[in-house]
# Entry
Amino acid sequence: MNKSNNPLKVALHGMDALTSKTMVMYLQGQCKGVAIVVSDSEADIDIFDADVVGAERLMQEHHAQRPHRPVIALSLCKGSLEYVLYVKKPLKTDVMLVALVKASSLCMKVPENLAEKTQENVTVMIQKESTFVCPKCQSTNLTGNKKGFGLGKAIFGGVLVGGIGLLGGFIGSQKVRVTCMECGHSWVAGKK
# Structure
């Protein structure tokens, strides 16, 4: 889920032009390209501003049309829709990264025969798979962070192959590391 692989494709809803531009810059900057903003038809997930008038109705209508797509709602308070991942405003990058990782894990390849299934069955599938927990202690108290430049790798690379080896410090720098706040266990997002 990093920019060298396929970033998560998100569609923005309920945001004015300025808020949308700010969100694009936030995803490119603070979230380091983990997700990119695309049109609604190309998106893997949807991000709503849940504090605009009528946002809950918009999310319900959108969910009825696209029940297989995860929804992240940015809000000052927790909402009541069960199929929505709520992220509290003001946004904190580690919380947003965890929400993006969780939404990514909910993205599923939709089979051709999905139209034959009822919306209720699809909603149940998403709700069953929506728990993102520590594999060691089953806690949901998690945080996500991007790895940065590795000084140790850069020094080792510089000693081993010279100046060009200093670029070794960037190896793994785009990976999201998820850490359990209960037991301290950590792992790279997307790997089992």
Observations:
- Confidence is low (pLDDT under 50) at residues 109-130.
- Helices lie at 17-28, 55-65, 93-106, 119-128, 151-161.
- The beta strands are 8-13, 35-37, 45-49, 71-75, 84-88, 142-146, 176-180, 186-188.
- Residues 90 and 102 are 19 Å apart (CA to CA).
